[in-house]
Design a protein that fits this description.
Blueprint: H1 14-19, H2 22-34, H3 41-49, H4 54-75, H5 91-100, H6 114-133, H7 161-170, H8 175-185, H9 191-196, E1 202-205, E2 208-214, E3 220-225, H10 227-237, H11 259-269, H12 280-293, H13 298-305, H14 310-334, H15 339-348
Antiparallel strand pairs: 1-2, 2-3
Helix pairs in contact: 2-4, 4-6, 8-10, 12-14, 13-14
Length: 349
């Protein structure tokens, strides 16, 4: 079996990676990582089946698989060796995992953020809570474990309108890339929503063009598209009425792992600093920050991006606002200091 080194699709065959969608790929990958003969295999399948949302199943399965692979490394269990028994996990084992995560890196080679580490532990806790409630394990070994503190401020850096305009110009030679940028920024779709969008989910209502996409919680979202975005959409589709909305370079459906390289390439062509940091969520964060900076009502922005809590929406803005306010405080002191005069004197000496 051909197994890539990392990612949701680890432990899958080449054919499975091509044909399975995200939730099914994540579940199959987790099942293979655990081992079909593991006593935990059946209970975990039941737990995942109990979750309503495909996105949630994919996220939980991916987080649990990361823990399973850590267990394999810890005990020296090879890919084709004995299964992993998650039912024997203790709090001490999970504590070791939490500690080791401090030294782990993510997809982009950077250390795992406190938010990622906290989320992985939360996913494990959800699993063991389910198992304990059914008396499959005696207790939840994650329940009493301290988790990383997560900042109340958003950590995803927003890009300003001028940088977004530069990206749009840089994408002008590729209609697919241009439409992707606009859906992620102007419409503030999540990357999973964009990749699952289909042409036959475009409809017209009250003079507007709407795109319906699946969202979190097993629900759907109908988003009115701006007329300028519709112009790009119709030009890109060129009369196509079926299939995935966005196509990959190979002609299949555009998938999540295709998007970061596209954004990086466009950002680099636009001359943006740190183009590798322009990832899908940056586009959404940039839109939220721009709206709130323009004094758009919080409740309208929250509805636009489908956040369940206003606090979630506000945290995206708090970081940018804090930077500006802190800079203003420093500027007030600098205004009273002869820094320019002193610097000019030093340069001329």
């Amino acid at each position: 079996m051909d197994r890539p080194r990392s990612g949701v699709r680890r432990w899958l065959t080449d054919q499975e990676r091509k044909t399975l969608d995200g939730p099914k790929a994540a579940r199959t990958s987790l099942a293979r990582a655990i081992g079909e003969d593991s006593p935990a295999a059946g209970p975990i399948k039941t737990w995942l089946d109990s979750l309503d949302s495909g996105n949630t199943r994919e996220a939980y399965a991916t987080d649990v698989r990361a823990f399973v692979e850590w267990l394999r490394d810890r005990h020296g269990i090879g890919a084709d060796d004995a299964p992993v028994n998650l039912l024997a996990v203790t709090m001490d084992v999970v504590a070791d995992y939490a500690n080791d995560m401090r030294e782990m890196t993510g997809r982009y080679g950077k250390p795992l953020s406190p938010a990622t580490r906290a989320r992985r532990l939360s996913s494990l806790s959800a699993l063991f809570k389910h198992l304990a409630s059914r008396r499959i394990v005696p207790t939840n070994p994650v329940r009493e474990l301290a988790r990383p503190k997560v900042s109340a401020e958003g950590v995803t850096p927003a890009r300003d309108g001028e940088e977004m305009a530069r990206m749009v110009r840089a994408a002008s030679g590729n209609l697919r890339d241009l439409l992707l940028l606009l859906l992620l920024y102007v419409s503030a779709f999540r990357v999973s929503e964009v990749c699952r969008a289909r042409v036959d989910q475009i409809r017209h209502e009250r003079g507007r063009t709407l795109l319906t996409v699946p969202i979190k919680g097993g629900k759907v979202r109908s988003e009115p598209l701006d007329p300028a975005v519709v112009d790009v959409l119709e030009t890109y589709l060129a009369g196509r009425t079926t299939g995935p909305l966005l196509l990959s370079d190979a002609g299949g459906a555009l998938e999540r792992h295709h998007v970061p390289p596209i954004l990086k390439r466009v950002a680099k062509a636009a001359g943006l600093p740190n183009p590798e940091l322009v990832r899908p969520h940056v586009m959404r964060t940039s839109a939220i920050t721009a709206w709130l900076n323009a004094n758009q009502p919080l409740h309208r922005v929250r509805h636009k991006v489908r956040h369940s809590s206003a606090a979630t929406t506000e945290r995206y803005h708090r970081r940018a606002r804090g930077i500006e306010e802190d800079a203003a405080l420093s500027a007030a002191l600098v205004a009273e200091l002869p820094i320019g005069e002193v610097l000019e004197s030093m340069r001329s000496s």
